[in-house]
Amino acid sequence: MKRKNKKFQKKNSSNSLNKLSLFQKSDGKFSRKCPLSVKNAPIVDYKNISLLKKYMSDNGKIISSKITSVSFGKQKKLTKEIKKAKILGLL
Amino acid sequence: MAFYENTIVTKQDLTEKDLKSLKEKYNKIINNSSGKVIKIEEWGLLSLANKIKNYKKGFYIHYKFEGAGKTIEEIEKKIKIDSSVIRYLTVKYKELDTTNEFFKKNNNG
User: Fold this and answer.
1) Is B16 helix (H, G, I), strand (E, B) or coil?
2) Do B52 and A84 touch (CB under 8 A)?
3) Strands B85-93, B36-52: pairing kind
């Protein structure tokens, strides 16, 4: 119980120090890392349909990397694998 | 010699005997033309995302094999003639991973 309380207090103090005003956005939002180039990341492959569906809109379009924050190299690989899956009629 | 993956989509109105004969037919073709089949997967009957030649569903057969360029020429020649195959895809890989099977759940249930 003591530890939890300490953590809670620290978080609060650090947040209030970093933010100068209410309208300033927190730093965490802008520095999002690529979800496909982390350790133990899922395999980008044309057989892994459940992963590919996450990066496509309902109309079957590929979502841009600006929104999904995928790195440039992985985005190139994603588009190639999605097109392969479309040939086989999986997507 | 390099590693390849080959998937075949067949018509939905084939009997089980036809499927087995198809599976063995391409297995023989690969083995006879200086290739070596490492693994065969059957993904079963899956529904297609959009209609292909007026078919809504198809049986998927997946081969993982090692071979040269000649083997692929011969397989694709035979597939193009075959009327029971709707679509096919061959992909070259540096290494094959035989552990992951993405379609295993669909087969069981």
Assistant:
1) helix
2) no
3) unpaired
Tell me how far apart the terminal alpha carbons of chain A are, to the nearest angstrom: 50
Nearest CA in chain B to A80: B91
- What does the pLDDT read at residue A22? 66
Per residue in B71-103, pLDDT (tens digit) is 899 999 999 998 999 999 999 999 887 777 787
In the predicted model, what is the mean pLDDT of residues A62-71?
Answer: 89
Q: What is the pLDDT of residues A4-52, one digit of tens each?
A: 555 555 555 445 456 666 666 555 555 578 888 888 888 889 988 889 9
For chain A, what's the residue count? 91
Strands in B85-93's sheet, in edge-to-edge order, are B36-52, B55-67, B2-10, B85-93
Nearest to A88 among B87, B97, B102 (CB): B87
- SS3 label, residue B84: coil
Residue B11 CA to residue B66 CA, distance in Å, equals 27
Distance CA B83, CA B79 (A): 8
CB within 8 Å: B87 and A91: no
Closest to B99 in 3D by CA, of A47, A89, A83: A47
Q: Do B89 and A43 touch (CB under 8 A)?
A: no
